[in-house]
Amino acid sequence: MTSDTTATTRPAEDRTPPGRPPRSRASRIRRGVAWTAAVLVLGAAGSGWWLYSHLNGNISSVDLDQAIGTDNRPPKVAAAGNAQNVLVLGSDSRAGANGDLDHGDVSGARSDTAMLVHIPEGRARATAVSIPRDTLISRPECKDGDGKTVPPANRVMFNSVYSVAGPACVVKTVEQLSGIRVDHFVEVDFAGFKGLVDALGGVTVTLDQPMSGAKGGLKLDAGTHRLNGTDSLKFVRTRYGYGDGSDLGRIGLQQQFMIAMLSEIKKQDAFGNPARLYKLADAGTKSLTTDSDLASLTALSDFARSMKGVDPSTMETIMLPVAYDKVDPNRVVVAQEQASLLWEALRSDQKVPDAAKDSPAKGGSGKAPKAPKAPQASPSPTP
């Protein structure tokens, strides 16, 4: 016997488990939107994690306590409260991406620029002390990057410490020189410096006299100029083509540029614009070495945000007081009387007295070029 019953297929909306009412069209749409949103959230989270990991992976670090030891480091002074002291180094390594920048045929690496930046507890101002690279100092016993002992030495140039024993030894040398505990150090090489300037779209500087371009340096007329990364690097490294041609005279240019760059960051509200902040972070961290406490994107961001109250136009820049060496007039030595006043003021978080700024060796005029007043922050354009 055959059946006349014909098999039928239920519409899609009726394909629900027995006992469960069929879903409406609106319910199915809501379910699709929810799944799409979930995928987008997961995708964004994955991209965010990749970006975070990428930037974190750019940063190299040194554990100062392990490299230097904790027993012989200067103690934090109670009177200074939560003040921070950061050693900023600019290295002249020609390795890797640095090879094509500024006479890349030079071997080795030295600390081309060194500034000890003191930031008081309130984080509303800062003082930067530049240490001349040609200063003759006593280098303490150190461990190099391979853990080998580097013996102490007297009357060596300050910038040679980096090439002989690495950044941790520079920190130890500065602590021995000043009696100040260095809380953090940050090192940027040529490529990192150029990348930061280019990420900002350039930095504006003003010269009160022309720069001649002597010995392959930058040539500029007196007046205001917008410099890209390559020209900015030449600007801060100019020695023979400006002023008296001395290393002490170059310090004034470096201090002027540092304040101009900080003013540019403040003007662009870089920390309030995620796209620009990522561009800066990506450029800056590619060639960045820090102490281990700052060696993460989170730590660097927190530290940078804590500095937002510092107005670049009120930042004090000082050259470590030095005198010309009696044996070699091409070198300088620390002027102990004035330097002692300077270090004591910073240790105790006090105003630096005028007597501490009176360097016997002045490098031409003895004064850094006047820094531009920090412009008011303006809304950031859409990247």
- Give the overall pLDDT as a whole number: 80
Strand ordering within the main sheet = 1-14-9-2-3-4-15
Note the total helix count: 10
Ends distance: 79 Å
Number of strands: 17
Rg on CA atoms, Å = 28 Å
Q: Could you state the order of secondary-structure elements as H and E?
A: HEHEEEEEEEHHEHEEEEHHHEHEEEH
The helix content, as a percent range, equals 25-40%
| Morphology | globular
* Largest β sheet strand count, sense and barrel closure: 7 strands, mixed
Give the low-confidence spans: 1-9, 35-50, 94-99, 104-108, 365-383
Decide which structural class fits the backbone: alpha/beta
A few lines on this structure:
By secondary structure, the protein is an alpha/beta fold. Helices cover 34% and strands 19% of the residues.
Describe what this molecule looks like in 3D.
Helix 5 (190-200) crosses helix 6 (229-237), helix 5 (190-200) packs antiparallel against helix 8 and helix 6 (229-237) packs antiparallel against helix 7 (247-267). The radius of gyration is 28 Å and the shape is globular. It is 34% helix and 19% strand. It is built from ten helices and 17 strands. The strands form five sheets. Strands 1-14-9-2-3-4-15 form a seven-stranded mixed beta sheet, with helices on both faces. It has a four-stranded mixed beta sheet with strand order 8-5-17-16. It has 383 residues and is α/β, with parallel strands linked by helices. It has helices at residues 25-58, 64-68, 160-165, 167-178, 190-200, 229-237, 247-267, 274-285, 297-306, 336-347; strands at 60-62, 84-91, 111-119, 127-130, 135-139, 142-143, 149-150, 153-157, 184-188, 203-207, 211-212, 219-220, 223-227, 288-291, 316-319, 322-324, 332-334.
